[in-house]
Structures are given as C-alpha cells and as structure tokens.
Amino acid sequence: MSDMPPPGTVLGRLDALADPGAFPSDYEPLPILLVRKGDEAFAYVNVCPHQGRPLCLPSGRTLVSEGQFIVCPFHGASFALESGACTGGPAGKAGLKPVPVAVSDGAIVAA
C-alpha cells in the first residue's frame, strides 16, 4: 500500500494502550491498528482479510483474547498479536498486513 506512514511518523503512545491490547491510530491516510504486548508495539492495517471489515468496533474497542490474539468482532477470525498470522476462523491462511513500527520515548512511530 502506498499510504504507509513515513518513517518517524508518530502513530500513538504505548501508555495509551492496554497491555496487552489494541486500538486504532488516528493516522488518516491508512487505517492502522496499534497493538501492545508489554513494552513492545506492533501495528497492522486495520482490515480483516476475511471480508475487509475493521478489526475493531466503531468505538475503537478491539477484542484481545487470552492476551495473545486479536479477534475480528464481525466473524471471529483471530490473529497473533506479535505476527498478525491467522490463528483461526474464516480468514484461512490470510494474515494481517504489518505496518513497521518502533517505540521511541513512549511513542509508537513508523519505522
């Protein structure tokens, strides 16, 4: 996707996310889901590969199961927090599209 954020773009703050947890970024050109597990951050395009729906509810609430899976609220596809790989449900082998990020002084920035 050509709308990937330029390196250094602040996408959110680590301390704003539950641990473990996920919440959409305010980055406009591309829907991005920010994910936290401990002091690490991951990010994915906020689109379930099953039917193209967001991985979060309209409120931004994102379902995280067992502290290790993002669960699509629409049809139950699940994805590993740390890799975006599909771990069950109707998405088959299609994983989430990663957005490279790093944590810098508490900010989650595009890498």
Automatic annotation (TrEMBL):
Keywords for this protein: 2Fe-2S, Iron, Iron-sulfur, Metal-binding
InterPro entries noted in UniProt: Rieske_2Fe-2S, Rieske_2Fe-2S_sf
Domain of life: Bacteria
Xref: Gene3D superfamilies: Rieske [2Fe-2S] iron-sulphur domain
Residue span, Rieske domain: 9-110
Protein name, entry field: (2Fe-2S) ferredoxin
